[in-house]
Amino acid sequence: xxxxxxxxxxxxxxxxxxxxxxxxxxxxxxxxxxxxxxxxxxxxxxxxxxxxxxxxxxxxxxxxxxxxxxxxxxxxxx
Length: 78
Ligand SMILES: [Zn+2]
Description:
Elements: E1 3-7, E2 14-22, E3 25-30, E4 34-39, H1 40-46, H2 51-64, E5 72-73
Parallel strand pairs: 4-5
Antiparallel strand pairs: 1-2, 2-3, 3-4
């Protein structure tokens, strides 16, 4: 783990980002959104989405995640 300060791509507020880079996936810990992962492709796309679409993408990731699994936002959710 290699945590750094960044901005949450969902809620646009200060969050912790892990840059360890597991297979093109970035992990965030955000006070509002909790802990989630996002693929590099989805991260590039989400910056062009409005706030509702961002929150909806995270909601889909959370629904898809198994119990105890960290949700991963991918490009199919955007
Ligand atoms: Zn957030």
